[in-house]
Amino acid sequence: MTTCLATLNSSFLAFPRNLGVSPGAEVIERQARELQDLADQSVTIGGHLREMIKRLHVAARESRVDNWDSYGAKAVDPQSLFRAIRFAHLLTINVSIPDIYVDPNGEIVFEWYIGPRRVFNVTARKNGELAYAGLVGVNKVCGVVQFDDELPETILDNISRVFSETGYLCS
Questions:
Q1: What is the DSSP string of 7-39?
Q2: Closest C-alpha to 108, from 92, 126, 124, 129
Q3: Residues 87/132, Cβ–Cβ less than 8 Å
Q4: Model's pTM, two decimal places?
Q5: Buried b (16+ CB within 10 A) or exposed e, 26-36
Q6: For 10-39, how does the pLDDT look when each residue is reduced to its tens digit (9 = 90+)?
Q7: What one-character DSSP code corresponds to residue 148?
Q8: What are 152-165's pLDDT values in tens digits?
């Protein structure tokens, strides 16, 4: 008997983590990786992801040593970078490519900025959390969620609100 346990994902680009241990589960995991590789090579899907990965590498390269900003900022944290790459893989192609930078704590930040009152950012923390904050009009939102195998719906919802007509953000 083959047993495979998988968790659900919010993005079709990132396949669920396979928690199975049987030979059949290993086959499923290999096939999912192969399908992911094919998607990453496509012009539409892969181009979107490649641009985000490129921006991540530029940000990491510019902040690879302590005091990279001349104000005492910490070097980019490898765990934050790893989580940021995973986050980028989970973003769907209908999500605008964000600005990506490293904050003074060495953590990676994704920022969707339309204007002074239409902004949302997500920080990939080294401890596995995603911290987020946004402002649309006079409405503010902020929080912290654990980042595992899927993109939290609250993150996608708030990115959408920055680009929506109404601009309404729940807090």
A1: ---S-TTSPPPB---SHHHHHHHHHHHHHHHHH
A2: 124
A3: no
A4: 0.75
A5: eebbeebeeee
A6: 444 455 555 666 887 777 767 666 665 665
A7: S
A8: 999 999 999 998 85
